[in-house]
Amino acid sequence: MQNQKRVIIENILPQLDNGNFFIKRIVGQNVKVSVDIISDGHDIMEAVVQYKHIEEKKWTEIRMNTDSNDVFVAIFSVEKQGFYSYFVESWIDYALNWQYGIGKKIIDNQEVKSELLEGIEYLKPLLNKVSSVEKKYLQETIKIFSDEKNYDNAIIEAVSAKLKSIFKENPTKFLANQSKEFKIYVDRPKALFSTWYEFFPRSASNELGKHGNFKDCEKLLPRVAKMGFDTLYFPPIHPIGELNRKGINNATNANPDDVGSPWGIGSKYGGHKSIHPELGTLEDFKSLVKSAKNLGIEIAMDFALQAAPDHPYVKDFPQWFKWRPDGTVQYAENPPKKYQDILPIYFESDDWKNLWKELLDCALFWVEECEVKIFRVDNPHTKPFYFWGWLITEIKKKHPDVLFLAEAFTRPKIMNELAKQGFTQSYTYFTWRNSKAELIEYVTELTQSSQKEFFRPNFWPNTPDINPYALQGANESTYLQKYFLAATLSSSVGIYGPVFEHMISDAIPGKEEYIDSEKYQIRHWDWEKENKITMLISKINNIRKEQISLQQTNNIHFCDTDNDQVIAYYKFDDNKESETLMICSLDAYYAKQTWVKIPLQLLNIQEGQSFTVTDLITGNSYIWDKEWNFVELSAELPFHLFKIQR
User: Fold this and answer.
1) Those residues with Cβ within 8 angstroms of residue 308's Cβ, 6 or more apart along the chain or in another chain
2) For residue 330, what pLDDT is reported?
């Protein structure tokens, strides 16, 4: 292919899979674009980034700066939700090249009369582009360049900063080359910073043995808000199937009074657009959502695309299920787990377009009827990727505030693909990262690889499905460590609340599953109880709201310590208006002492220059002036959360 352009544009960052997917930001965040640009010869190259919001007609242009290794960089900010596009444009700047060349000759005392006349050819095209003041200046400069008697003044103006500025601001862009366009999706701030609390609405009653309802949940909202949580997530609230209903501890045969699993969705009372009758009415749920909003809390709904055997879909749309020769539908399995109370949706149905439309309508019902703006999606990795890309895109076209959390504990590439298809956040492997080396390796992968551009982690120490070995039989210090690490390493964090607070960890032997799991029965909790864990969770959550360095994940630097049982890390926001230092013991039983290496260069502090660190947990302050500093941690309070001040 013939191409007269001389500039080569390569290795543009950030971008995802050569632009096949969009990168992600939130409103107000920066996008730092870097690119390798080369050309033949030694001419001066210039480059810009052009960007615009999807609703804008005109492109905004920002000039790129370069280093000595042909890397050009520019930063722009995204200020509105929705899609942005950007591309890089570069060209040989012949006017600047002329100015550079004539300057070299002038320094060498060479005569440049001919070069001055050549310069006029670069000035004339600018006369109709510049301001009236600049036009007058250029006209005078053209006269000087043309008059040999003004040679001394001419060589001064030829290399002047003023002329260079005019050239820079009004490039000709002859034979400019352009990259392809790349996409950014910009979400509201909660996409990056959120604090989740989970409980089962049916366990919300203060009365022992009574099925809880939305009105009981509403009474608990002040407690959730006081603890600093801004997202309250409920397992499915739809009617629970009666056919093949599970009993206590996942028993295959349920007793008449067993309440079943909320994930066995659908019965004679309705399906995915209905509410389990014992929880209340649609109006009760709307009231709950409104009351939560008044306290700064959003209700997150579970979006589980599956059906109990008596879900209305099974009778009304049998083509949406895969029937076996014996006239039954194979129930869901995740070996060795069996879900006899759940039928998987058959996404390869010939009627897939109507199926997709119905599932979209289900989500839109809750968004438009009840103002739900957050969905926690159950096992999205067991449904087609392209389905999710379509559904999320369709919803966000009309409702850009809606966020999606992927509950996908699966292989890394699959989790990444879900994020690429549009999931806002994802559960992660944090639940199983326990040692210092494991934590550093995992967080470094999330924050320093290409994942940082599209995969937003949400760190959960536990879930109703996962009672991790690290918490089974663990003491209070372990629970404190786990929450502290989750809440300060990641800007989004969540807990399965009552079980975590009360340190409930009894497990089915040899498994990471809770015995007497709340998935299959109503539990009674003392909602009035406060303990050290609840108080410190509240403290940490409210610190997160105050320190913007903790409201992002990627700006993190792990600090050296001389103790493998102590992890330390420094976090900062883009403008370094907030800087925090976290130091956490990983030993749940013994006090730990260590020396921590402070990244003075990142802090722009010289050795010997004093700075203050204030522990936002205890209020204690210390003045440090060295690179290595001593800290001590107890098992009773196994962490420091320092605010750094000059």
Assistant:
1) 240, 241, 242, 243, 244, 245, 264, 265, 266, 267, 341, 342, 343
2) 87
